[in-house]
Every structure is written in structure tokens, then in C-alpha cells.
Specification:
Length: 74
């Protein structure tokens, strides 16, 4: 009986470990898919702001939102 309990516990532990590992890999892949889009939009913001970008984000409709630094402020 003790052997059976240990076997079930170990198998369950491995299943949980594999599930968490696969979820971690999936999340990293999904984040990597956004990077080319962010880089493209960041380049657009740099051109628009003459390379003085203060804040950069992407809104709900996948449009870049740029906040340029004031060239007269230090």
C-alpha cells in the first residue's frame, strides 16, 4: 500500500512539473512573437520623435502610442 501511495505521488509530481514547464515555454514563445512588432513600432516612434522617445506602448488595437521628449527640456 505504501509503495502504491509513493508511486501515485511521484507520478502526479512529474505530471505537474511537466505541465508547469510546458506552460513556461508556451508563455515565452508567445512573448517572443510580439518582439518584431514592438521593434517595428519603436523604430516608427524614433523617426517621429527624432530619436527622443520618452514613453512607448501599444494600445488595444495594436497601434503604437509614442510620447516624445521635449527637445528644450533637459
Amino acid at each position: 500500500m505504501e509503495f502504491l501511495k509513493n508511486l501515485i505521488t511521484k507520478k502526479f509530481g512529474w505530471i505537474v512539473f511537466i505541465f508547469v514547464f510546458l506552460a513556461f515555454i508556451f508563455i515565452n514563445i508567445m512573448q517572443d512573437l510580439d518582439r518584431p512588432l514592438k521593434a517595428k513600432y519603436m523604430d516608427q516612434c524614433k523617426k517621429m520623435c527624432d530619436k527622443r522617445v520618452e514613453k512607448f506602448s501599444i494600445d488595444e488595437k495594436d497601434n503604437p502610442v509614442c510620447v516624445c521628449k521635449d527637445p528644450f527640456m533637459k
